[in-house]
Structure formats: C-alpha cells, structure tokens
Specification:
heterodimer, A: alpha/beta, six-stranded mixed beta sheet, 6 helices, B: alpha+beta, 5 domains, eleven-stranded mixed beta sheet, nine-stranded mixed beta sheet, 30 helices, Macrolide_Exporter_MacB (chain B)
C-alpha cells in the first residue's frame, strides 16, 4: 500500500470487540459492518460509550477485534501482524485524537516532523514538507511554538498537520473537536473536510456534535456497539 | 474518611513507591547512624592506640634526695596521689653514690640501688633475693643482674668489698652476692629509673657494673647515707576512651599540682610566690611528666577521626537526601491525579500537607525502628567488636538517639517539601539545576577550597580542634564538584539535539529532545550517581592509599624487611651480626649505625652509617622520595672509590688475636691516680671484610708490657680481617701531668693464633684524647653523603665554605652526592644523612694536622637485611640471638598497623560508605527511572499510534538511561579522582602515627574502573528492568469510547 494517491476503501464486516471477561465484560462492538468508499468523508456519531473510538482503533490497527474483518482496499487489517499494523500506521493510515496527542516538549514543527522521521525522510525534504503542511493548516508562523504555547484549536491543527504530512490515504479522527469550543470545532471540522477533498483521502470522523455532521458525505450512527443507521 | 484510613489506602495504592521512599529513608538512617556510632568506636580505639605509649610517657615522676628514714613520708604522698589516677602503679628506685671495685681497672665502678618492686620485676636465675642487713651483721646481701655478674666474673656466694670513692679512709662496704637475676620485662617502668638493671654493664669514661640490688629498706637503715630516690606513678591508660579523656586530663593536672605543692615546688614555673612549704622531707625535689601532652595528643586523634568520618557522614546524608527526593518525587508524581481529585473535593493545601506529614512520619518511624535494629549491630560488625547483633542497651544509647532523631526529622521535612514541590511550575528545572544555575556549585567549591586550606593549616599546626565547617571541607568538595558537573548537562543535551536534528531518523533526536528538554528529570539521578561514584572512588582510593601508606610507614620504621638491633640501651651482642648473616645470607645484610648529631641550627639530625656495598639491594626507599634517582645508584655514590689496602691483614680464619701492649710514660702511672697494676682502657680496631671497623676492648693497659688477647672467633666477624689501629683512652687530666706527646703506646709482638703478624703498617697517631697506633695519614677527601633537603642546605655552608659533620667526637668533611626527601628510621624524617661506614672509617678527621685514618667513628649496632624468606630468617634470629636483641619485621609492622582499630575501622567505614552509596544510588535510580517511564507513557502511546514499535521506544529509553549513566560515570571518574586527591590525604592520617613518608594518594585504576563498571551495570540493569516493567504495565492510547 502506498501512502500517496487516492483514498482507501474501507470495508468492515461483523466486527466484535469485548473488553474483559465474565460478568464484568464490556462488549464494545457487536457485529459492526459498513463500507466507506475511497475519498468519502464519513462521520460516525453516537453517545459516549457507544463504541466509536473502539471502532476507529480497530479500523486503524491500533486495536484488534475478537471477530470479523476489516479490509483497507484489498488488505485485511484484522489478519495483519503487529509489524504490518505499525507499517500501516506509519504509511497510509493517520490518526487524529481528541486530546491532540502532541508531545509537549516538542515544537509544532518537530511534532509534525515525527512521522517523516519515522519514514526516514531526508532532513531537507522533511523540513520542506513540514513547512508546507503547517502553512496549509494556517500555522506557518507558529512552527517554533510548543503545544502549551498554542490554543486548543491550534494544537488540533498541529495534530492534523502531523497526520497529513505523511500524505495518508485514510484519516481516522476521533472526536477531533471534543476539547474545542463550538466555533473552533467548526473551523477544525471545516479544515478536515477541505483537506480530505484536497488530498482525495478517505476520512472517518467520530463526533457527537450534530452541528458538524453536515460537513460529512455520510453519517453512520452507532449505538451499543452496533451500527444502527448508515445514512 | 478518617485520616488514618486515608493514609493506609494512599500507601497501599503505590506500594513500590512507598517502599522506595521507606528504603531510602531507612538505608540513609542506618548507614549514617552506624557511621556516627562507628566514629565513636573508632575514636575510642584511636584514643587507646594513641595512649599505647611506653611507660616513660605515661608516668608522673617525683625525684629528690632524702635522709635515711624519710622514705615512708614520701611513699605515702605518692601513693595518695596515685590513688586518684586510673590504673596507677607506683615504683620507687633509690640509689647511692657508686663505689670502687678493688682489683679491677681504675675506671670500674659498682652501682648500688634499692627498689620496692624487685620481687615482681625480676626472675631469680641463681640463688635468692637479698634479705635486709640485720640478718648478717657487717655484710650486706645483694643480687646482681646476670650480665653484671658475668662481667665481674662473680657468682652466688662471692663477697666483694666495695670501696668508698669519696672518702679514702672510709671502710669498704662488704657485700655478698646471694643471687643473680634477669628482668622479666625490659620495658617495665622500673627499669626507666634503673636502666643498668637491664644491661648490667655500661661503658663510658668509667665502666659501671650493677646494680648491686639491695633488699628493700636497706637504705632507710642509714648504712649508706643519703640516697637519691625516684618515685614513678605509672598510669594504666588502656581503659581511657574519648569520653573519659578530659576527666583523666584534669586528674593528672591535679596530681601534678599536689606533688609540686607538697614537695615545696612553685605551682607556676619560675614563680616562687606560688610555692608553699614542703610537707615531705625531700631535697631538690623535681616533678616531671609528659602525660598531659600524651592525653592532648590522644584528644587530637579522637578529633581527627571525628573530623575524618564527618566527610562520609555528610556525603551519605546528602546522598540519602537526594535518593529520598527522587523516591518521594516519584510517589508524589504518581499521586498527581489523586491529589488533583482531593483538591477538587475540597482538600486544602494544609490538609494535603498534613496527609504528607502523616505519611512521612510513618515512614520515618519505620526508618527509626530499622535503624534501632540494624545500626548498632552493623557498627559492631564493621568495627570488629565482638558481641550480639543487638542488645537491650542499644535501645537507650544516647548517641544513637541524638543522631537518628534529627536525621529522621530531616527526612520528614525533605519528604513533605518534595511532595509539595512536585507539580509546581519550575519550568522544567529541578532544584539541583536551579542550584547550579544560581551559582551554588561555585559557592560550594569556594567554601570547600577555603575549608581545605584551613584544614591543611590545622594539620600543619597540629591544632587539637577542628571546627565543623573545616571538617566538612571534603564533603563540600564532592558536593560542589557534583553540582558543578550538572552544568555539563545542558551542553551535552544541546549536542545530542543538534546531532539528532541533522539526521533523518527519530531515535537519536527523540533521546536528545528528552535529555535537553526534560533535563530536570535527569539531574536528580545524575547528582545521585555523581555522589555515589565520588564517594565510592574516595572509599576505594582511601583503601588503596591507607594500604600503601601502612606499607610505606612500616618500611620507613623498619628500614628493611628485617631489622635486628638491641631493644634496650647498651652495646649490641658482638655476635648479633653473625647471627643475622647466617639467617639471612651475608650478601643480604647491611650493618647499620644509627645515631644523631647536631648541624648548625639543626638538632637531632639522624646519621645513618651503613655498608653502601649492600645497601643498594637491601634497602628499598620509596621511589618518589629519591627525587628521580634510583636507590642502587644513590647507594653506589656513597662508597669511596679508593679504599686504602688493609695495613695489618690477619690470616684467614684467625680465632685469637694477641697483642703485647704497654703505656710508655715518663711519669709513673700511679701518679695519674691509678694503683699499680691498673691501667687505661684499651681497644684494638679490626676492620672486617665489609670495611667496617669494630673497636674490640682489650682491658686495662699499664706501664708493664703485657699480652692481651681478643677472641675473634666468638665474634664471628665477616672475613677477611685486618688490624687497622690500637687505641688507649687517656683521661683528660693526664695532659696536665705529663708533657705533651711524652706518653706513647708501645706495641710489641702481634700474633694471630700464635703466628706472628708484621705490624709495619701502623704508625703513631697519639693526640690529646688518647694513645694511638693507626694507618698512616691519607688525603683529606670528603665523605660522600646522602642528605635530606634541610641537611643538604645546612651542609652547603656560607660562601661555599665547607661544612663539617660532627660524628663520634670528630668532625668529618662531607660532600652531598644525593638528596632524598626522607631517610628510613630517622627520628626527624626531614633531618637525616646517610654515609658509608667503611668510607667514614677510612677518612681522616677534617683539617686536623696529623690526623690518621681508620679510627672507629661509627660502630654498627643494627643489621638490616632482606632475606629471601623473611619469616624464616626472623624466626632463626629470634632463636639464636642474644637476650635483649630486638627483631623488627616489616611485614609484622604492616600487619599490626592494618589491624590497628583506627585503620581497620576507617577502612570498614569507607567500605560501608561505598556499599551504601551503591544501594542508595540504585534505589534512587530505580525510582527516577520508574517516574520517567510513567511520565512518558502518554507520549509513547502517541508514538505507537504513529507507528513506532513499543520495543523500539523501550530501547530508546534504555539507551537514554544508559547514556545518562555512562556519561555521568565518565564525569564521575574525573570528579572522583579530583575529590579523592583532595580528600584522601585528610582521611588517611587518623591513626595517630606519623605519616612518614608523606601519604601518597593511590587511585587504583583497575579497581576504580571496576567500580565504575559495576555501578554502570547495576544501574543499567535496573533501568532495563524498570523500563520493561513499565512497558508491560503500559497501555496504548485511545482507551474505550
């Protein structure tokens, strides 16, 4: 799989994921199934504890399901080895987290450069691409700032830039506006939508903010670990 | 929730972190308290060691003259004074004027004495002890030392009439020898006042035999008139320790005052107004003692030990504090969320502080209990004191409590403040970094430098007190260096970041970023490792240095691997040299003459006469005292290149040498004050194969030529032998009675075992000191000498004028051919001169017209040797040598000093310090690594989400910890070396022995590197275990939705 080019096709079939065992076991996903077309922006909505984050983690290879299949294009993610999953996350799949997931001791530029370092990109090329992607998220002048010197919206833009810098084909954003006020959340969501189109990448965003759902091509609804509506 | 329940639950939530805090506190308390207890134990041992002085130095002496019958009053006074002093034993020795011995040389004398301790001080070899005179009217019973009886050729039952040398008309004193005795202990105090009792015979201008020991009470009977008496109060100081030292000092001062007051002496020297009338009938009373000075010296030793051990105590307290900060910081970090929650639920800062205080008090209580259980036993084990591990008395030891309680309070304070400090905004800077940044390190170093200078001044002045700041100097040095080293952290971090930024990969950059931007998380552990390594290096260097110093000082004290001399005053047995040569091998023995002389303003200059031909291989002075030269080369420079051939060689194997001798005088010898048949003391000078000249007595030489025989066979001199001179001593007054040069020595036939030997090589060399036949005059060449710098300077003279060295009543021209810093066995190491015995003997007196060679100047009284098997040779010498011979074995001195409680205790203490440092560093490092790993969990989760394998992250963290440890240990090597060089000389001199030659700091490279390796390994493995454990416990980010 290449990290460049068009978005990935996502096919999820009968995915189950249970945490723990016995009477206290939590069944986070119970036979989830859906498909996302290449380049499509899909929003996944649901209440807290409905299984949204688990679903994104299983799709992105951060977590393994107990049963079912996840395919990205023709690759079966659920059958991949740990190393293949790591390669997947270094390459075509990128994550954006609700809590931004920035390294506090690194500047915005350094945070964004981490994925390129993981891919062994030469320093000159790395710096060029980092500068370009920061410009695209509107933070060209904030590259030397550390996360605690940036607002929440700016931090999420840096996280988005870090996700985009390796030119992913699938962006998985878990509640990217969850820690932002509504105005900033809308801005970030708009940015994600715009960049998804510009980069032709498939995007799956979880949110429970109805105001943001309008930016998506399609909305999946998940409740108690089951997709109840595929929009 | 009740506070107690909350405390228990809080502790139970993080048991390992609480355990780390508890171990840090307990370990620091146990070791510091053990060191304090050890300080007291070693201090007491040091005091005892310092007070292990000869009887002469622990005695109060009262002397004077008194009439018969007056003894009892003074006896009572002295007994009363002695009763107030520890372990006091009183002896009295009374003597009367020496008497003549009819039928013997006119210069022979008989000494009479009486002592009240005779029965307990001697072994009766033959006969019995004397009874008071009333038993046999007219005859006084005496006993004689065996040596005196042999010298006089008298036996039990013989009677002698001792003449009065003052009153010619007085009747002789008839004495009967009823026994012969031998001293049980030649070092006993009694013989200090009666040294003749040990040797039996002394030869100066007169030959004195005796003492003729009278029965106690004889002199009080009035038979012999007034007597001189010496009362000696010998103190038993073995039970004195550092605590009782000052009390004993006061008691001794009081005793001296009493003796002076009661005997009518002024209480203040030279102030007659402070004198009161005497209450005892003692004329010319004199009171003397050096006990106060000895007690002061012991106090100095105790203070030095306390000051020396202050260094490891302070450093361990510092190290323990640092480890505690690390582990308490970990605990507080783990509780950040919990603390936030408590605040949200209304807990005030005071309430939180109270919780922290309660927990700290609980931890401190555990630490105190552990200390109570372990510290006393540890102290006894380390100090080698026998006894159970714990005894009830330990629980009420005031020193223990006075140490542990302030320390525990300090630990509570550190734990509480650390708990409150964590989480506050210090902008990523630790307190240690802040300390460095604020210049505290430089301040510490300046303070340390000042204190070190002051400490060296104390050393030089021999001051008996050391103030706390000065005593803390070594600790300040290590602490200052450690904090100073933290200044390197940002520099190294920047380098790491720069290197990482220029590369495409993440690992190096990630490690660099963490080091550079989370330096605060590293400084604690860096400080910990630096302190531990610094202390470990000091401990190792101390051990190696003390080992070396003990060997050096033992070698200096012994002079050679085996030294044989006479342990008591008097002439060495004539066969001792032969015994040593037989045991050690002739080529491994150096005859040595050791004496002192004065040179210009220098008094007490040790003159070491030795056989230079063998000294090069037998002696082995420390190389750095030789100023770049080799010892064989220096020894080789001492021997004259052109020794004259022997004038009167004796046939090989000569056993008996017979000479016909007479004094040729124009005035009858009788007029010189001698009866017919008496004569002047004579000696024949025989040179042995080494060129060493020995003067062999030949008895009295009178007007009538008579054959005198010397038994060369029994003396077992090193062949070949040659006669190089004959002398007869003349009393000073002879020159007033006989015209100058008119008295001559007449030498007739000389035979060796009956075979005549030509004596053409001897010429007349008579001068105003005696009659001489000697080798002909030779060129006036200086004797090559090795000298210490002060002596070499004194020998330079002004304006290039040659300075002469006074030797044996002569002045010998010398030339300094080498300078050495210290000469073995010299009383004052800085004032010594060494020369070749044979060269001195063959060198004429400087500038004296008609000066002749080969007069005996220095006679060997010691034999230094380096046998192949020292132990066997020493055993053989001990078995074969004459009574009173002393055998000094260098390795035995080494063993004694190593076993010295102070040395052994200090070494154990330093080993304890090194071990405790390692443990505390390990605990602190583990806590720090755990805290670091936990703080990284979240961002590591992000990196895993970005595609970094968790194992790789763990490896980066491990490599980062390894880099910190290796870098710190590398810096620690330099720091440790610098600290050891500054500190160890101050720690190595606490046993009260003079450190001669000067302590040479030994930094054992392999041991230090081994310690560095062990420390690195231990910490790396710990870091690895902690990181792996954290990885196992850690979870990926995201969690459940």
């Amino acid at each position: 799989m290449s990290g460049d080019g068009t978005g990935m096709r996502v096919a999820v079939e009968g995915v189950h994921r249970t945490y723990g065992a016995g009477p206290t076991a939590v069944r986070a996903l119970r036979g989830v199934g859906f498909t996302v077309r290449p380049g499509e922006l899909v929003a996944v909505r649901g209440r807290s504890g409905s299984g949204k984050t688990t679903l994104l983690n299983v799709v992105g290879g951060l977590d393994r399901c107990d049963a079912g299949t996840v395919r990205l294009d023709d690759e079966v993610v659920t059958a991949m080895s740990d190393d293949d999953l790591l390669a997947l996350r270094r390459g075509p799949v990128a994550h954006v987290f609700q809590s931004f997931g920035l390294v506090p001791v690194l500047t915005a530029r350094e945070n964004v450069g981490v994925p390129l370092r993981l891919r062994g990109t030469e320093p000159q090329e790395r710096e060029r691409r980092v500068g370009a992607v920061l410009d695209r998220v509107g933070l060209g002048g904030h590259g030397e700032h550390r996360p605690d010197e940036l607002s929440g919206g700016q931090q999420q833009r840096v996280a988005l830039a870090r996700a985009l810098v390796s030119r992913p084909r699938l962006l998985l954003a878990d509640e990217p506006t969850g820690q932002l006020d509504s105005e900033t959340g809308r801005e970030v969501m708009s940015l994600i939508a715009r960049l998804a189109v510009e980069e032709s990448m498939t995007t799956v965003v979880t949110t429970h903010d109805p105001a943001l759902l309008g930016l998506a091509d399609r909305v999946l609804t998940i409740a108690d670990g089951v997709v109840t509506d595929e929009g | 929730m009740r506070a107690r329940v909350l405390l228990v639950r809080r502790a139970g939530a993080h048991p390992l972190a609480v355990l780390a805090v508890t171990v840090s506190v307990a370990m620091a308390l146990v070791v510091v308290v053990a060191l304090r207890l050890l300080t007291a134990t070693i201090g007491d041992a040091g005091v005892r060691s310092a007070l292990e002085v000869p009887a002469a130095d622990r005695s109060l002496v009262l002397s004077g003259t008194l009439d018969p019958g007056d003894t009892a009053a003074v006896d009572a006074l002295v007994a009363d004074v002695g009763g107030g002093l520890p372990g006091a034993r009183v002896t009295r020795v009374s003597t009367v004027t020496s008497r003549g011995l009819p039928g013997r040389a006119g210069t022979d004398r008989a000494a009479l004495a009486e002592t009240d301790g005779l029965a307990g001080a001697v072994t009766v070899v033959d006969g019995r002890l004397p009874a008071p005179p009333e038993g046999k009217p007219g005859v006084v019973e005496v006993v004689l030392p065996v040596a005196a009886a042999d010298g006089l050729d008298v036996a039990v039952g013989d009677r002698l009439a001792l003449t009065d040398l003052v009153d010619d008309d007085a009747p002789p004193l008839d004495v009967e020898v009823v026994g012969t005795v031998r001293p049980d202990d030649v070092d006993a105090a009694l013989w200090l006042d009666l040294p003749l009792g040990v040797v039996g015979v002394t030869s100066t201008e007169f030959t004195t035999y005796g003492p003729f020991l009278l029965a106690p009470g004889t002199l009080d009977g009035g038979l012999l008139g007034r007597s001189s008496a010496t009362w000696r109060v010998e103190l038993g100081l073995t039970g004195v320790d550092a605590g009782s030292l000052d009390g004993v000092r006061a008691d001794v001062a009081e005793a001296v005052t009493t003796l002076r007051r009661e005997s009518g002496l002024p209480l203040v020297a030279n102030d007659p107004d402070t004198a009161a009338p005497a209450t005892v009938p003692l004329d010319g009373a004199r009171v003397s003692t050096v006990v106060p000075a000895e007690l002061d010296a012991a106090r100095l030793v105790a203070d030095r030990i306390r000051a020396s051990l202050l260094t490891p105590v302070l450093l361990l307290a510092l190290l323990g504090g640092t480890a505690l900060v690390g582990s308490a910081g970990l605990l507080a970090g783990l509780r950040e969320e919990e603390t936030r929650l408590l605040r949200v639920r209304g807990a005030s800062s005071t309430r939180l502080a109270r919780l922290g205080l309660g927990e700290a008090l609980a931890v401190a209580a555990v630490g105190v209990l552990v200390t109570l259980a372990l510290a006393p036993g540890t102290t006894r084990a380390v100090a080698g004191v026998p006894g159970p591990w714990w005894r009830p008395a330990d629980a009420v030891d005031p020193l223990l409590w006075s140490t542990v309680l302030p320390l525990a309070a300090g630990a509570v304070g550190v734990a509480v403040v650390t708990g409150l400090w964590v989480g506050r905004d210090t902008r990523g800077r630790s307190s240690a970094r802040l300390a460095a940044g604020s210049g505290l390190d430089l301040a510490l170093l300046v303070l340390a430098a000042l204190a070190l200078v002051q400490l060296r001044r104390y050393d030089a002045s021999g001051s008996t007190t050391v103030d706390p700041l000065t005593g803390a100097a070594p600790a300040l040095v290590v602490a200052g260096f450690s904090v100073l080293a933290l200044r390197l952290v940002p520099l190294l971090s920047r380098l790491a970041v720069r290197a990482g930024t220029r590369r495409p990969g993440l690992d190096l950059a990630w490690g660099g970023w963490q080091l550079a931007r989370r330096g605060a998380q590293q400084t604690g552990v860096i400080l910990l490792v630096l302190l531990a390594f610094g202390m470990g290096t000091i401990a190792l260097a101390h051990d190696a240095t003390v080992t070396r110093a003990i060997e050096d000082q033992s070698a200096f004290e012994a002079g050679a691997p085996l030294r044989v001399d006479r342990g008591v005053p008097g002439r060495t047995s004539s066969t001792t040299g032969a015994v040593v040569e037989e045991a050690a091998g002739a080529d491994r023995v150096v005859p040595v003459s050791r004496g002192t002389t004065s040179l210009g303003g220098l008094d007490g200059v040790t003159v070491l006469g030795l056989d230079a031909s063998a000294a090069g291989t037998v002696l082995d002075p420390r190389a750095d005292t030789l100023r770049g030269a080799s010892w064989p080369d220096l020894a080789g420079r001492l021997a004259a290149q052109d020794r004259p051939p022997p004038a009167v060689p004796l046939p090989e194997g000569t056993e008996r040498l017979t000479l016909e001798l007479a004094v040729d005088s124009p005035v009858e010898i009788r007029r010189f004050g001698f009866r017919r048949g008496d004569g002047f003391t004579g000696a024949v000078h025989v040179e042995d194969g080494r060129g060493v000249v020995a003067a062999l007595p030949v008895g009295g030489i009178g007007e009538q030529r008579r054959a005198v025989t010397v038994d060369l066979g029994s003396r077992r001199l090193t062949p070949p032998l040659a006669v190089v001179g004959v002398e007869v001593d003349l009393p000073d007054f002879v020159s007033a009675l006989a015209p100058a040069g008119s008295v001559r020595l007449d030498l007739g036939q000389v035979t060796a075992d009956g075979q005549e030997v030509p004596v053409d090589g001897l010429v007349d060399g008579t001068d105003d000191r005696g009659l001489w036949l000697a080798l002909p005059p030779a060129a006036d060449r200086p004797v090559p000498v090795l000298a210490t710098p002060a002596v070499a300077e004194a020998l330079q003279g002004e304006d290039g004028r040659r300075v002469l060295l006074p030797l044996g009543g002569r002045e010998v021209p010398v030339e300094v051919v080498g300078v050495v810093d210290a000469l073995p066995t010299a009383a004052d190491p800085a004032a010594g001169v060494a020369l070749d015995l044979a060269t001195v003997a063959a060198t004429p007196e400087a500038g004296a017209p008609g000066s002749f060679r080969s007069r005996t100047v220095l006679e060997p009284g010691e034999w230094w040797s380096a046998p192949a098997d020292v132990e066997a040779a020493a055993a053989q010498v001990r078995a074969d040598a004459a009574y009173g011979t002393r055998v000094v074995v260098r390795d035995e001195l080494v063993a004694e000093r190593r076993a010295d409680p102070v040395n052994a205790g200090m070494r154990s203490a330093m080993a304890l310090v090194a071990g405790a440092s390692l443990v505390l560093a390990a605990v602190g490092f583990a806590a720090s690594s755990t805290a670091l790993a936990r703080r990284r969990r979240a961002e590591n989760g992000v990196l895993v989400a970005l595609g970094v394998p968790p194992a790789r992250l763990a490896r980066v963290l491990e490599a980062e910890r390894l880099a910190v440890v290796v870098g710190t240990v590398a810096v620690g090597l330099l720091l440790g070396a610098a600290a050891a060089l500054a500190v160890v000389p101050l720690l190595a001199g606490g046993d009260g022995h003079p450190q001669v030659p000067a302590v040479d700091v030994v930094l054992p490279p392999l041991t230090v590197l081994g310690f560095a390796g062990a420390l690195t390994l231990v910490l790396t493995v710990l870091g690895w275990v902690v990181v792996r454990d954290d990885r196992r416990r850690g979870r990926p980010p995201g969690g459940k939705s």
